[in-house]
Amino acid sequence: MKVLELLEEIEEIVDTASGFPLTGKIMVDAQELLEIVREIRHELPEEIQQAQWIKNERERIIAEAKNEYEAVIADAKRQAEALVENDDITVKAKLRADELMRVTEETAKQLKMSTYDYVDSILFNFQEKMEQLNALYFGDMFGTIEKTFNDINSTLSNNREEIKEMAYRTQMNEDDTMQEAEPRQEERDGE
After folding, report:
1. What's the pLDDT at 182?
2. Nearest 5°: CA angle at 157, between 156 and 161?
3. What contacts 145, CB < 8 A, 6 or more positions away?
4. How far does the chain reach from its first CA to its final CA, in angstroms?
5. Rounded mean pLDDT of 55-78?
6. Which 8-state DSSP code applies to residue 141?
7. What is the gyration radius of the CA atoms in the chain, in angstroms?
8. Per-residue pLDDT, 190
9. Do the bridges between strand 26-27 and strand 18-19 make them parallel or antiparallel, or are there none, so unpaired?
10. Is residue 92 within 8 Å of residue 139, measured between CB atoms?
């Protein structure tokens, strides 16, 4: 990673710089430091592109999961309609359709939850890496770069919160669906 190498170069310049007696201050070549800072600014967009790729990948995975979920549900409905020929077959078809719907929804929920966990772990690892870089290499001297890291960290936190919220809503929708399905099953048992 080019940015880390440049930061190590700054650290080496500071470590080897001549000091002013009794002040704790050092003398460094401003041009040399400014050139390194320019290179860091040049390299940072690549890191930001990686964060954008992670966000886009998360959205793609969620869209695929939703499409698969809808396709399975549509298939289950088609199978249930094809089985409706007489009363005995109708009852069995309804039971089978309900079971397929339950299994399908559970599978879709598990897929969604796995996707959320996967995206959250990627975002968490990237967030940790950004915090480590921030803690190790940036101080008061690089306020602008620190702001960039804080913005990225905030975006990652927001993305993680969105994932957790989506997972929570999925769980709540599943619980509501299960509660609605229980009275329908009792009605069928009464028939």
Report:
1. 65
2. 115
3. 37, 40, 41, 44, 138
4. 68
5. 86
6. G
7. 28
8. 58
9. antiparallel
10. no
Q: Which residues, other chains included, contact 90 with Cβ-Cβ below 8 Å and sequence gap of 6+? A: 83, 84
Cα dihedral: 82, 84, 85, 91 (round 10): 140
Contacts for 139 with CB less than 8 Å, ≥ 6 apart: none
- Average pLDDT on 46-53 reads 75
Confidence of residue 161 (pLDDT cuts 50, 70, 90): very high
Give the integer Cα–Cα distance in Å for 5 and 70.
Answer: 48
Which pLDDT band holds residue 158 (cuts at 50, 70, 90)? very high
CA atoms within 13 A on the CB side of 132: 7
Write down the domain spans for the chain: 47-190
Stronger pLDDT, 75 or 177, i.e. the higher one:
75
Q: Counting every residue, how long is the chain? A: 191
Taking the C-alpha atoms of 80, 84, 88 and 92 in order, what is their torsion angle to the nearest 10 degrees?
Answer: 0
Residue 71 CA: distances (Å) to CA of 86, 96, 100: 27, 17, 13
The pLDDT assigned to 122 comes to 84
